[in-house]
Specification:
Strand content: over 45%
Distance between the termini: 23 Å
CATH topology: Porin
Number of domains: 1
Strand order of the largest sheet: 1-2-3-4-5-6-7-9-10-11-12
CATH architecture: Beta Barrel
Number of helices: 1
Shape: globular
Length: about 240
């Protein structure tokens, strides 16, 4: 209970600090496949769209194939290449290739909840299609997440879980000027195992994002995200 109260306080402070900025509403839709190649190796495919039904001047589509290597129940190594296409009504459309590497560590693990820490480095190569120019940057990301173990609700036969996370983004080189670049992200969500191999999650995300190089170009993004996770081969769900 103390942890939940603390997360609510962080959420309220996050909202108040950035109340002077523009507020935007977004919708994100994602489909993730988990395919355990062996007991140690996982192929994880992530595909999605952002901005649909909500942001008139910006829509983004991506595919993100990746591999995960699990050494034990606490430590995993991640790597992949994300390909992104952004349609911008008021500026150049962009195509991005983003190789990335990450490491995830679960600690602490309690009776009903556990925490995981995720650190990621991204090499971003962005091509502006209208002017044929390339931008390159390095970006770091750190996320701490609390997730509950599976639980049941009255009168519902399937299991649920819930989670909350805080993520920060760190530019290691010059910023790339583009629409809705995340700076900080706070997420609350709930998931339901609708079938043996399908998990559907509903996220509410409050994100501070940048649309330019100054504070006047920042916005508060209220994001409703639907994520479907599918185990295409036998194995535990990987979150």
């Amino acid at each position: 209970m103390k942890i939940l109260v603390l997360l609510v306080i962080v959420f309220l402070q996050f909202s108040l600090i950035h109340a002077q900025n523009k507020d935007d509403f977004q919708t994100w839709i994602d489909y993730t496949t988990n395919n355990w190649i062996s007991s140690e190796w996982l192929y994880k495919g992530d595909y999605g769209a952002r901005g649909l039904l909500s942001v008139d001047e910006w829509t983004q589509y991506y595919i993100n194939p990746a591999f995960v290597f699990r050494t034990d129940k606490k430590l995993t190594y991640h790597g992949g290449v994300k390909l992104v296409y952004s349609s911008n009504l008021l500026s150049s459309n962009t195509v991005e290739m983003r190789p990335w590497q990450g490491v995830q560590y679960i600690w602490p693990r309690l009776d009903a909840i556990y925490f995981d820490h995720y650190l990621r480095l991204e090499e971003r190569l962005v091509w502006q299609t209208d002017v044929s120019e390339f931008d390159f940057s390095l970006r770091g990301r750190y996320r701490i997440r609390m997730r509950t173990l599976d639980f049941r609700l009255p009168l519902i036969p399937t299991k649920f879980n819930s989670f909350a996370s805080l993520e920060v983004f760190m530019d290691l080189t010059d910023r790339i000027v583009e629409n809705y670049v995340g700076r900080h992200r706070l997420t609350f969500g709930i998931g339901n195992h609708v079938a043996k191999d399908f998990l559907i999650e509903l996220h509410y995300i409050l994100q501070k994002s940048s649309k330019g190089s100054s504070s006047l170009d920042e916005s508060n993004d209220h994001i409703l995200r639907i994520r479907v996770k599918h185990n295409v081969a036998k194995g535990l769900f990987f979150n």
